[in-house]
Amino acid sequence: MRGTPKKISLLRRMVFDVMHTSMGVPFVTLSRPLQIRPLLEARAGAKATAGWAAIFVKAFALVARDEPILRTLYAKWPWPTFYELPKSVAMVAVARVEDGEECVVAQRITGPEALPIAEIDALIRHSREAPLQDLPMVRKMMLAMRLPLPLRRLAWLIGLNFGRQRASYFGSYSVTSVAAFGGGQLHAITPGPFILSYGIVEPDQTIDVVIRWDHRITDAVPIARVLTRLEQVLNTEIVVELRGNWQPAEPKPIRAVGT
């Protein structure tokens, strides 16, 4: 059957490279429904609705503030080592349409534990609405995608295997979801080390949360405790902030969407 050849865009080529570099990561997954009734009440009573992506970015960073393992990377060069960061760096997957093609871009948020939810939400929204050239992280990745394949592979190796470079370009955790389009458990793949995704709010006021992590860094029991702590943070510290003076830049929040 005769078809039509179509050029692979730079953004789709970036997905190819991310999948390639993620193949060797020994991921393990833990999922659990979290009871978030206090959060739902606070969110419903807020002057403007906080986006779920911003809420989970902030909540996970607050947990990581007290759990150094969640700020730990695995680096191979100059020799295999764990690299602990002083603060979290979130990478949020945001869906957008570029030149008629649906794609995903990454928004880096450094130190989200110290940022207001409103500011996190505005950064996520900016990554969906702004021209690609106005997004520094995406602009750098697009430049790298123009390199020949051998040079791209080398660039990925350098970026992923030195602790400092890895933190700068790939963060300490990722947040992704398809909840805005009907939900479902998303078991995403990235170079890691931690990936958090969430579903839709269920009638019993729970929300399914999935954490995938690099098993070289930690085991299942600490992650089980992290999910318990995450539920507590969502219903306490996040609730307090939402009941305060939360004011977004625009009335409509943007949710993260994964690949």
Your description of this structure?
With 259 residues, the chain is α/β, with parallel strands linked by helices. The chain has a single domain, classed as Chloramphenicol Acetyltransferase, CATH 3.30.559.10. Helices cover 40% and strands 23% of the residues. It has nine helices and eight strands. It has helices at 10-22, 37-45, 52-66, 117-129, 136-145, 149-161, 163-170, 220-235, 237-242, and strands at 27-35, 72-75, 81-84, 89-98, 101-110, 173-177, 194-201, 206-214. Strands 1-8-7-6-4-5 form a six-stranded mixed β-sheet, sandwiched between helices. A two-stranded antiparallel ribbon has the order 2-3. Strand 4 (89-98) and strand 5 (101-110) form a beta hairpin. Helix 3 packs across helix 4 (117-129), helix 3 packs across helix 8 (220-235) and helix 6 (149-161) crosses helix 7 (163-170). It is globular. 37% of the residues are buried. The model has no long low-confidence stretch (mean pLDDT 90).
